[in-house]
Amino acid sequence: MFDTMYEEDGIGLAANQIGEDLNLFVIDISHKDEAEKPRVFINSKIIDKKGECLSVEGCLSIPGIQVELKRSEFITLQYYSLEGEQKKREFNDLMARAIQHEMDHLNGIFIVDRISDLVKMQYKKDLKEIEEDALKESKVREKIQGIVL
């Protein structure tokens, strides 16, 4: 997953973005914050939120679209590490934002679901192209699966 994320110049990736039905995501913000190492989060649950912060976000699932979103500035997260160790930790700033973004993916929420209709109208053409590309890709997958079966 890290390789896929790095290939797309992302800082986070949820398992369901690559077709895996797992409650798992990866984040690496070490290029922005050297104190943070690449992390794997399994079965995560936000148990507390504090403050609010407005910042611009993009998404690997919706390339080329950047929107300003309000998110909690501080979160307390309970999760399991790759080694199976249960952890509870407070995160803030970019890491908190990235965690909330990836957890949205796991819950079927995209950044466009969190923006106003007015902002959606600004991106209408881009979103339509992305939707058409996704539909073409799914039809290709269906054809390939039909051939393989």
From TrEMBL:
Q: What InterPro entries does this protein map onto?
A: Peptide_deformylase, Peptide_deformylase_sf
Q: Which GO terms describe its molecular function?
A: peptide deformylase activity
Q: Which Pfam families did the record assign?
A: Pep_deformylase
- Family membership noted in the UniProt record: Belongs to the polypeptide deformylase family.
Task: Please state what the protein is called.
Answer: Peptide deformylase
Q: Which organism is it from?
A: marine metagenome
Organism lineage string: unclassified sequences, metagenomes, ecological metagenomes
